[in-house]
């Protein structure tokens, strides 16, 4: 169960898109789509039927204007997207594998599931956060903050790429990445103002500038500079930067780094017509050659159905107009 929970967390970050006008993520044998005021899932069950569920949702950012400030909105978006994304991933597993719903589990099973989730999260933090800091310290390199964090960041990115390549060889992940491609094609179709059907969606590419793969890569890059600055400041007060001190200062600031990454992703998506912005966003797009694959017609049909269900009766009000791929202000 722990291995599966870790896979859910990583798959969420690789396939989810942030708080946007229209976006979503690949889930197990299906797609979740989020639109203004609601989100929906469409999942194929073992009998080949498409099961859909829709829920209304309004971000807390829309309720309190102070939360719309740059960086803060990104931190909120990350939390809400994680909660929604992990929840819909678990829900899709219940449908696709005909598992027992979380609400029907015994108290013991719920406790075990929660512990497994926490353990998986701890393993993820250990692999992608603690390990690079530990290895960099063992290399005996210069203890300047910038040198340390450049090396640590390079190790973190290398581990991420290795993990990405490794899971891409798994059959179930390959199918997830096909649904990921289907989600992107459907979003592109809507943003282009075209009719939501197979004929319109097929020509679009599977890489999208707002993808969670791009987001996490931007966070990895921005963390190098931010943690270097943070370490330089902390070092003035404590002197030697030990592993423990770095963990105590870096861990609580992960949401801040993610918030900055969100703003960078928002800008690169909005201004991707500028050459240097495209160059900045290019590595995240390249990585999507791993995390997205060409979907078949059945998978693309699921993604289209998810978006239609998410909009419900409001589809006609939105469909037919072109949209810029950026986060809601």
3D architecture notes:
- The protein has 329 residues and is an alpha+beta fold.
- Helices cover 63% and strands 8% of the residues.
- The chain has helices at 2-15, 72-96, 107-138, 145-167, 171-191, 198-201, 212-238, 243-250, 254-270, 275-291, 297-311, 315-318; strands spanning 23-27, 30-35, 38-44, 50-56.
- β2 (30-35) and β3 form a beta hairpin.
- α1 packs across α3 (107-138).
Defining key terms:
329 residues; alpha+beta; 4-stranded antiparallel β-sheet
Q: How many distinct folded domains? A: 1
Total count of strands: 4
Overall pLDDT level: 83
Terminal CA distance: 39 Å
Main sheet record:
4 strands, antiparallel
Numbering strands along the chain, what is their spatial order in the largest sheet? 1-2-3-4
Task: Count helical runs.
Answer: 12
What is the strand content? 5-15%
What are the secondary-structure elements, in order, as H or E? HEEEEHHHHHHHHHHH
Q: Which range best describes the helical content: under 10%, 10-25%, 25-40%, 40-55%, 55-70% or over 70%?
A: 55-70%
Class by alpha and beta content = alpha+beta
Radius of gyration: 20 Å
Low-confidence parts: none
Shape: globular
Put the structure in a nutshell:
The chain is α+β, with helices and mostly antiparallel strands.
Describe the protein's topology:
Layout: H1 2-15, E1 23-27, E2 30-35, E3 38-44, E4 50-56, H2 72-96, H3 107-138, H4 145-167, H5 171-191, H6 198-201, H7 212-238, H8 243-250, H9 254-270, H10 275-291, H11 297-311, H12 315-318
Antiparallel strand pairs: 1-2, 2-3, 3-4
Helix pairs in contact: 1-2, 1-3, 1-7, 2-9, 3-4, 4-7, 5-11, 7-9, 7-10, 9-10
């Amino acid at each position: 169960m722990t291995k599966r929970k870790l896979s859910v967390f990583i798959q969420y970050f690789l396939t989810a898109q942030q708080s946007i006008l229209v976006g979503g993520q690949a889930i197990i044998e299906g797609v979740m789509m989020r639109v203004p005021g609601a989100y929906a899932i469409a999942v194929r069950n073992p009998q080949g039927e498409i099961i859909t569920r829709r829920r209304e949702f309004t971000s807390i950012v829309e309720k309190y204007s102070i939360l719309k400030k740059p960086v803060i909105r990104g931190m909120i978006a990350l939390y809400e997207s994680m909660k929604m994304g992990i929840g819909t991933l678990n829900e899709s597993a219940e449908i696709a594998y005909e598992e027992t719903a979380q609400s029907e589990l015994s108290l013991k099973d719920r406790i075990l599931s929660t512990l497994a989730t926490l353990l998986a999260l701890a393993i993820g933090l250990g692999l992608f956060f603690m390990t690079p800091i530990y290895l960099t310290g063992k290399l005996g390199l210069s203890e300047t903050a910038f040198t340390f964090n450049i090396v640590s960041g390079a190790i973190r990115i290398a581990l991420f790429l290795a993990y990405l390549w490794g899971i891409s060889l798994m059959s179930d992940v390959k199918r997830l990445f096909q649904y990921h491609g289907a989600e992107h094609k459907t979003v592109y179709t809507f943003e282009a103002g075209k009719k939501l059907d197979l004929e319109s969606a097929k020509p679009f590419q599977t890489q999208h500038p707002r993808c969670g793969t791009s987001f996490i890569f931007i966070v990895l890059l921005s963390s190098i500079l931010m943690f270097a600055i943070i370490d330089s400041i902390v070092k003035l007060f404590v002197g030697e930067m030990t592993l423990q001190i770095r963990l105590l200062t870096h861990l609580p600031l992960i949401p801040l780094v993610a918030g900055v990454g969100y703003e960078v992703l928002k800008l690169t998506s909005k201004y991707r017509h500028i050459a240097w912005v495209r160059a900045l966003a290019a590595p995240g797009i390249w990585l999507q050659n791993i995390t997205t694959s060409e979907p078949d017609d059945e998978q693309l049909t699921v993604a289209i159905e998810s978006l239609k269900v998410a909009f419900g009766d409001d589809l006609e009000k939105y469909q037919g107009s072109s949209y810029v791929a950026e986060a809601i202000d």
